[in-house]
Amino acid sequence: MGVQRRPVRDADALMVTIVAWLRVGSTIAIAAAGALPDDLTTRQNALFILLGLVWVPWSVFVLFASERHGNPWALYGGPIGDLAGLFTIQVLASTTGVATLSGYLVVVAFTAYNVGRRAAGAIAAAAIGLAALAQAIVPAHDRLSAGAVASFAAAAVAIVLLLDRTTARHSMASARADRLESTADAILGRIGDGVVVTGARGEVLNCNAASERILHRRAADLVGSRCEVALSLHRDDRPLDCSGGCPLLGLTAPDDPLGIEVSRPVGDGRRQPLLVNAAPVTDGDGLVIEVVHSLRDVTRLKEAEEAKTLFLATASHELKTPLTVIRGFVEMLMQDEMTDDMRPMALNAVHRRTLELGEIVDRLLLSSRIEAGRVELNLREFDPVTVAAERVLAMSSVTGRPIRFEAAEDPPVAIGDPAALATVLDHLLDNAVKYSPDGGDVVVAVDTADDEVLIRVSDQGIGMDDEQLAHCFDKFWQAETSDVRRFGGTGIGLYIVRSLVETMGGTVVAARAEGGGTVFVIRLREPEEAVDEPARGESTMIGEFMRQIGVPAGGDVRRGG
Amino acid sequence: MRVAVATSNLILGFVYCSYGVITIIDLARGWRANGLSHFGLAWIAMAFTCGPHHLEHGFHVASGRMGGPLDLLAVAVGFPAGVIWFLLRVEATAGGRGDRFVSDDPWWVRALPPLLGVYLVAMVASAVVVITSHDTRFGPRYTPNLLLLGIYMLIGIYLFRTQLWNRGSLGGWSVSGVSLTLVFPTCGVMHAVYALYASSGRYHVDPHGLVIDWLAVPAAVYFVWVVRGLHEGKRSDWNRGAHGVRLATAPA
């Protein structure tokens, strides 16, 4: 049968460390006390030297051993050393006084708490034996009475039994509490819904990480603040009144897990939609002592719903326009209503519109593949100048619009997928031409800066305002949301652009171009070169010392073996 | 002799206390970003016990008490190393590099092992001469000095291990690291010499020195406890990044 040990938990480990530190402090204090008097006898001199040079290092060793949970040197070595030290004091100082006997009892008590009944019983038995032995060794006039020694023995046994029973119960209760707390922490930390616990008077007692994200405030700021301030919930544009207790308790049904929809102001006149629920925590008398609120941010959900609705409308419109043209020409051809010289023109129009339809469907399919994570790029070193020059030439010939191309004298090398970059440039050039109907320069420039390849696509078209610049890469987002749309499009082109560029490890940003219009800047990585960076000095004494002792301070990038 | 011992101890005392002040400034600066540093606290405790020990000893010798040649010999190696480290720390505090990296093994690094060997032999031989030629009586008053000898040697081993690892992996030596590695063992030797002279009657241990030396023991134990915990990943200090991820350490 294996040995069963009481599991050593954090609290127990802390106690072992505290006891070890107390032991170090006590031994140093006792050894130092011996250094004060000028008239020590030879035996006392030997005692204090022994205590200083053996007991102190031993207690330091036990302190280090206590770093490891359940280390027997810490659990058993400490008390054994203590007994040996106390016995040495008794014998060399010729004393069996109450102070040393109390020392034995303290050792027994800590052993009972830290190690358990069996070890404490053994330590208690040893302590009683050593105390009795010291009685026999020390001169008669220094001995204690038999009653005092018997009382000491009884106290040692009582400490073992009482402390063992107490610690066993405490251990079970705290293990259960720890388990529940860990479970609760794990649940609250992982769930996406915000959870805010308020007290009976409406003050925030606790909140989880998700609530910090949803409320855009740190937990330290939320905890302690008033519920109506921290949450600032509104229903039908009116703030919820928390003065008479939590109003959500009356508004939400116990069997409705989703709760009700409310909102909270987030500045600029905007409102954050939330699904909230509340549940009371009651005491034994049924009084509400805490309220647990759950919050779910449905902003993205609502935006996605709106975007999808808009997308369905615009995609239908985009698909319907070429289809209408195709149907019209096909019906005319079928009814033989066309002259021979009109037929090629009709077939040409049908062909063009079919290509448009194909492009729209291709975009939708690519967007769907990106969404599903099924786009796999072949990342490698390539020449972005050649790719850009080809796309400029192709777009220029298709649209009949001159596009200026500028490239660095030294051709840069980028990391990415040439086919993906071609798709990206096609979308950006298509946009540039489409959104500059009145003409103006469309420019593609390829350059390098700070170990990156920069590709700029700029136009002098209608440009974008701040909100448009902030959202233009969102899926299904379009600059024009009104019924009267001048430029068409499905609203997924720039979403595709950003997704492909980021998959290549790059970034893309949109900004206003000088003199009007828009500029898109793509940054792609250049191949890395081995750089020997000189060693950097630490700026702090603490950091430097830690570095020299083999423990890098925060921010030190040295790699260990 | 007396002047040299007094002067060197006074300078070392000033340098140690300055270390303490710089560390307090570091701790105050980094507190908001990194929280409490046990390492910093322990180093402050060390600096403000080692510093006063040297100041007290220096004042005593300057005021007419005897200074021993072994004391001067103990200081001979530790003093320049300590001053170099101090100047590098001052440089770092002023925004400079705070260290110099030396590739390969320059002559002065190659000279250190034989010099230290000679130093150690000379110290031991001299100690034996002092013990045999004087009525040496060891007492509990000298215990803290011997405890500090052991603890400072232990810290020296930690530092030495890191320097060897640096030599192997980086192909050179950190001047800051080498000088700090030299400081601790020589501090330990200084305490041993102090105990030796005190037990042979040359130095007189008064209550000031006694209190300072006994306070230095828990300070040094605390420091080693922190260093061990950091080495073994059992304590978090400023060695952790912003996300609590333990950064790489030298192999133990």
Describe this structure in words.
The complex is a heterodimer of chains A (561) and B (252). By secondary structure, chain A is an alpha+beta fold. Chain A folds into five domains: 10-185, no CATH class; 192-297, 2-Layer Sandwich (Beta-Lactamase), CATH 3.30.450; 303-371, Helix Hairpins (Orthogonal Bundle); 380-525, Heat Shock Protein 90 (2-Layer Sandwich), CATH 3.30.565; 531-561, no CATH class. Chain A is built from 17 helices and 14 strands. Chain A has a five-stranded antiparallel sheet. In chain A, strands 9-11-12-14-13 form a five-stranded mixed sheet. In chain A, strand 5 and strand 6 form a beta hairpin. Chain B has one domain (2-231). In chain B, 75% of the residues lie in helices and 2% in strands. Chain B is mainly α and 252 residues long. The chains are: A alpha+beta (561), B mainly alpha (252). At the A-B interface, helix 1, helix 2 and helix 17 of A face helix 1, helix 2, helix 3, helix 5 and helix 6 of B.
Class from helix and strand fractions of chain B: mainly alpha
> What overall geometry of chain A do the principal axes of the alpha carbons give?
elongated
Number of strands of chain A: 14
Coarse morphology of chain B: globular
Oligomer: heterodimer
Structural class of chain A: alpha+beta
Give helix % range of chain B.
over 70%
Question: How would you write the strand order of the largest sheet of chain A?
Answer: 2-1-7-6-5
Summarize the main sheet of chain A.
Answer: 5 strands, antiparallel
Instruction: Give the helix proportion of chain A (percent range).
Output: 40-55%
Overall structural domain count of chain B: 1
In terms of DSSP E residues, the strand content of chain B is under 5%
Radius of gyration of chain A: 40 Å
What share of the residues of chain A does DSSP label as strand, in percent? 5-15%
Distance between the termini of chain B: 42 Å
Rg result of chain B? 19 Å
In which order are the strands of the major sheet of chain B placed? 1-2
Low-pLDDT stretches of chain A: 1-9, 530-538, 554-561
Count of DSSP-assigned helices of chain A: 17
